[in-house]
Design goal:
By secondary structure, the protein is α+β, with helices and mostly antiparallel strands. It has two helices and seven strands; from the N terminus they run ββαβββαββ.
Length: 156
Amino acid sequence: MAAVHEYLRQYRDFSRELSATRLHIPAITIGTIATLLGIIGNYADDLDNITLGVASQDVITLDRNTLSADVPTNVFAQRELKWLVHYHSNTLNEKFTLEIPTADPTGRLIAGTDLMDLTETNAASWKTNFEILAVSPNDDTDQCTVDFVELVGRNL
């Protein structure tokens, strides 16, 4: 299946309901990003000029790929079993959480707790890459650090 590249602009109407328009766009590469961002900016202005709602959100999708339609073979692969990641921004020290569904706790829990052992090989690798990639939702220059990760389930 081919990757999807798209631009989404969401509008809020008078009764506060949200609706979006999507446009498939060419692949974004290092050589095309500046031009495409300029064209998308012009297109967004044009959309605003032909609509009455308030633009509430823009999303530019670099690549959206369908990876698989397979079903897991492990019966414990359940979306309700999650890793709840607690992390903070390094500069402003703001606290955040992130959920990761279908957690695999096998060999990854500190004995006697629901906490992920961040020294376990796969967990340590995940933590390293998370901290390289993650920035504060409030400031995309403020890198983040994992505080702890706990195994949680769905509230009933």
